[in-house]
Amino acid sequence: MQTRKALLRAAAEAFDEYGYAGASINMILKRAGLTTGALYFHFDSKEDLAHAVMNAQPELIVPQLQSQGLQRLVDITLLWSHMLQVDPLLRAAVRLTGEQASMGTRDATPYQSWAKVMAECLRDAQNANELQAGVDPDELGEFVTEACTGMQMFSAVASGRDDLSDRAIRMWRLLLPGVAVPAIVARTEVSHERLKTLIG
Amino acid sequence: MQTRKALLRAAAEAFDEYGYAGASINMILKRAGLTTGALYFHFDSKEDLAHAVMNAQPELIVPQLQSQGLQRLVDITLLWSHMLQVDPLLRAAVRLTGEQASMGTRDATPYQSWAKVMAECLRDAQNANELQAGVDPDELGEFVTEACTGMQMFSAVASGRDDLSDRAIRMWRLLLPGVAVPAIVARTEVSHERLKTLIG
């Protein structure tokens, strides 16, 4: 597992810096300090490695969180907005996911796995009577995934992602009143202070 | 102007099909049936041409619409979701905007011009008392731009953009109740039927 992790990290750093086409297998092996044999034991190809990087996203964020329901979903987006600024693996995953046209692949799994994680929080929220009637957890989970995808792209070119947490906070200010019951809108913590408690 | 338009269209078709790196100046000139001289009269470089394609977006959609206020903003997103499936210029603009990392550029103008057009609709909506108190037109305009950006990426890999209009309709179902006053939520038309009337 350590070798696999080292390969993923090295590949992510190379993809983050040079993109899919610009990153070579040799560059990745050099960074990881590993041989071709080690690579092909764990991954079939550069493309296979890219898909593994793309699909590593939720595990980087979700296990760190204690909260439940709607607050958990808010916390996922806040922590994600911070991690994207500091973690090359998450950044490479997001870059590759968005640049699939130039890789010649079409893999919806990275989006779908985020949407699924978010829908699980929202089903808990629904069971705890946090959501307004008629709000579908699966639909809202997909929509929040879409909005986060777009906000990091806008933020990347507008500010090098410096304002990404501001954008995540703004999303909830606009979205919560239409999807959560009033008591939950009032109680849910959506702020830079909340993010600070999550980073710890 | 006709030559400039022909160059933009030819460049868009090439960028849409091959991406920025894959599309060559020669390929673009061949498609347009024009000479190098004609190109450099209108554009400084392939990069200049790419920025012109990226920034052509709102003019492809907005002048076609008659509605006002919040309905106009909804109509922009509905017509955009359709045009992205059929218009190579819009499709190339969106692809290039999202792939700026591989072009080595950082141009927030395509996002900002969409956000500005949307904020104008929302200021009209605010003046007509369509918005809930505290909803900021500029903030909501940026957020809808972000959400549309992300939904077309998710839709591209999930369905080749076949479900993009469904996703635009879903966004408004989730977002409207939190930002518009109840009478406007009830009156605003957000449906495939509405989109059909816009296509004409």
Automatic annotation (TrEMBL), chains A, B:
GO terms for molecular function: DNA binding. The keyword DNA-binding applies. Keywords: DNA-binding, Transcription, Transcription regulation. It holds the Pfam family TetR_N. Residues 24-43 bind DNA. InterPro entries: ArpA-like (IPR047923), CprB_TetR_C (IPR054126), DNA-bd_HTH_TetR-type_CS (IPR023772), Homeodomain-like_sf (IPR009057), HTH_TetR (IPR001647), Tet_transcr_reg_TetR-rel_C_sf (IPR036271). Residues 1-61 form the HTH tetR-type domain. PANTHER family: HTH-TYPE TRANSCRIPTIONAL REGULATOR YJDC (PTHR47506:SF1), TRANSCRIPTIONAL REGULATORY PROTEIN (PTHR47506). This is ScbR family autoregulator-binding transcription factor. The lineage of its organism: Bacteria, Bacillati, Actinomycetota, Actinomycetes, Kitasatosporales.
